[in-house]
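Memo to structure team: turn this sequence into structure tokens by end of day. - J.P.
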Amino acid sequence: MTGRTRRSIGQATQRGAVLIVSLVMLLITTMLGVTAISSSRMGEKMAANAMNRNVTFQAAESAIENAVADTNNLLQAISAGDAGVNDTLDINSSDVAATSNTRYQGAGLAVGFSLAADSSGFSAYRFEITGTGAISALNAQTVSAQGISRIGPSN
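Reply from structure team:
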């Protein structure tokens, strides 16, 4: 009978302990799973933001390059005044827009131009071109600016 009494006393003191331990382990595992999911979502958002930033930057740079290559755009900017000349670049995308603004900064000595030393009638025409790339649906935008000069005959 003493063996039986010990057994029933041991069962009475341990009743429910395994359940509590397993519930705590389940809670810890659930918390680890939730943390892992939120961490992966944050990584996905960061990767998407980096991609959107790169796309808008490339669009802004393309708008600047288009404005630099367009001689008529530069000539219009000389007479446009402080507002400059706005141009929209068609980049064959419904999501991404690329625009540029070209402003004339003035004319000066053509530094580094060998014919300018003898006052042969050449000047450096300076422009500032600002390109903007945007994805309006995501409220993402990049603005990039570049200064250029073109050497041409003085007025």
